[in-house]
Amino acid sequence: MAARTVPRVRVLVPPRCLVHLLAWVQPADGGGWWACVAWTEPGADELVLRTGWIAAEHVRRAPGEDHAGVRRIRLPGETQGWPAPVVGSYRWPGPHQHVGVLCGQLLEPPRGARRWLWIADGDDGLAE
């Protein structure tokens, strides 16, 4: 049996990038849909798999991605109490860090990560 391909989506809140869509989730009380997503970021010595919950309104389809097989599940209670996903079929060999609900807040770098200073052409200033 072939491994399930995990489609990508673009998120409009930090981390503001293409992420893997693990599942669509709806609160048991019938509230709006949420995306359970995963992405990687550099840690101290290796890539860290990070996961989080993002309201569907902040998620956009990535061109060419097939979302037909994405699981749809219901979770009880408030989003703040939802657990970290078990990344089972994702088979990530390195560290995993669940960041919880993503609603526009700036994300701290993964534990142990070095901070980088990015300089882009055309910038008048420096940003961390």
* Percent of residues in β-strands: 35-45%
Structural class, by secondary structure, is mainly beta
**Number of contiguous helices:** 0
Low-confidence stretches: 116-128
Number of structurally distinct domains: 1
Q: Helix share of residues?
A: under 10%
Average pLDDT confidence is 79
Descriptive tags:
single chain, 128 residues, mainly beta, 7-stranded mixed sheet
Summarize the structure.
This protein has 128 residues and is mainly β.
Q: What does this protein structure show overall?
A:
The chain has 128 residues and is mainly β. Helix content is 0%, strand content 37%. The chain contains no helices and 7 strands. The chain has strands at 8-11, 18-27, 34-42, 47-55, 59-61, 71-75, 96-102. Strands 1, 2, 3, 4, 5, 6 and 7 form a 7-stranded mixed beta sheet that branches. Strand 2 and strand 3 form a beta hairpin. The protein starts with 7 loop residues before the first strand and ends in a 26-residue tail after the last strand.
